[in-house]
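tokens incoming
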């Protein structure tokens, strides 16, 4: 750990949440859990909200973080405006009509952000330029993990099994739609259509034929001009969380868990994840011991293939004939206390407050810059 931390009694942690994307509310829900769990006797906590228009503001613990009456939370942008100038590690206040002031140095940032402009390497790059340590994966792993098309390319290159898919790029869809539709039909029906660079199951649809396919692609393009179409895979959804270990120890894999979605949902969509109680998690997953061990090893291989740091969640399909197929890896998975990754670690003996603390300590012990 950097010796500069010893001059202050507590490490200063900035928890950053919100953001300029459709996962703004999901970010706030996770941040609320982190702020509740973080040990205030060990850490000086600075809550920072990123408003939907991209402005950074000094938030308070009174900010609404949960869904109330069906209304999604949003960053209260009435607080003091903030900036993080490159190379300083200092939070700067930007009150209108006043000379910029300093809130002092930040030891580590906990970016509780999902989706574009947060989970995709952009804020990681900003923090690298500012010289501030941060929780989670770096620029490259975050960018690749956010883009499902490139993610699958890297996973396949690492020898991990992935399902058949077609990438629908903006230019191809506009200029050569018939060829795109033919390529997708070759996958067989049904297919799942999703934005290539969105998360929390935003913009995902199931298509049974060409008419539904066009509608589904247009829906996904509302979130991202680059779309991924995947062949439907018959199998159970099994998930595994991977946590970076201190020192030179290899990453650790949690017990696998099976996502169980009730009959109101065709798949594990946004509503099932965050609204109501339409999903449950069975931990450990009821699969053979050999398959469980293989899945955990594959999860660590996926984590290392992308060069991940901190915490990730790897999602699998377990087919009726006993095969494991990697669906995707999430470099900043849902992080409320009841989200899948924290539940998997709780069942594996790491409580939510301990998980939060471990992620902060891992970030503090990591060298800044190239590693």
């Amino acid at each position: 750990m950097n010796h500069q931390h010893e001059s202050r009694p507590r490490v200063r942690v900035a928890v950053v949440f919100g953001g300029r994307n459709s996962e703004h509310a999901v970010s706030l829900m996770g941040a609320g859990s982190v702020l509740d769990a973080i040990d205030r006797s060990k850490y000086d906590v600075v809550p920072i909200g990123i408003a939907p228009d991209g402005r950074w503001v000094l938030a308070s613990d009174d900010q609404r973080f949960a869904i109330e009456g069906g209304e999604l939370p949003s960053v209260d942008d009435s607080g003091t405006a903030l900036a993080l100038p490159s190379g300083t590690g200092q939070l700067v206040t930007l009150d209108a009509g006043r000379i910029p002031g300093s809130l002092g140095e930040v030891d580590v940032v906990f970016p509780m952000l999902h989706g574009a402009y947060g989970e995709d390497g952009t804020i990681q790059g900003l923090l690298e330029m500012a010289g501030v340590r941060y929780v989670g994966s770096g620029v490259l792993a975050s960018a690749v993990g956010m883009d499902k098309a490139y993610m699958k390319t890297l996973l396949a290159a690492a020898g991990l099994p992935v399902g058949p898919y077609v990438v629908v790029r903006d230019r191809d869809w506009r200029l050569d739609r018939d060829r795109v539709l033919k390529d997708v039909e070759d996958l067989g029906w049904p297919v799942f259509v999703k934005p290539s660079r969105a998360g929390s199951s935003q913009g995902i649809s199931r298509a049974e034929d060409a008419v539904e396919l066009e509608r589904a692609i247009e829906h996904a393009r509302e979130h991202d001009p680059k779309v991924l179409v995947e062949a439907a895979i018959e199998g159970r959804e099994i998930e595994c969380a991977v946590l970076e270990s201190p020192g030179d120890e290899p990453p650790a894999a949690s017990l696998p868990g099976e996502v169980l979605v009730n009959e109101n949902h065709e798949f594990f969509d946004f509503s099932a994840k965050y609204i109501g109680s339409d999903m449950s998690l069975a931990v450990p997953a009821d699969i053979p011991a050999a398959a469980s061990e293989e899945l955990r090893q594959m999860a660590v291989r996926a984590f290392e293939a992308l060069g991940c740091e901190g915490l990730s969640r790897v999602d699998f399909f377990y087919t009726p004939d006993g095969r494991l197929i990697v669906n995707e890896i999430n470099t900043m998975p849902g992080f409320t206390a009841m989200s899948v990754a924290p539940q998997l670690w709780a069942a594996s003996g790491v409580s939510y407050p301990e998980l939060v603390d471990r992620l902060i300590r891992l970030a503090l012990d990591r060298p800044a810059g190239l590693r």
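note: The chain has a mean pLDDT of 89.
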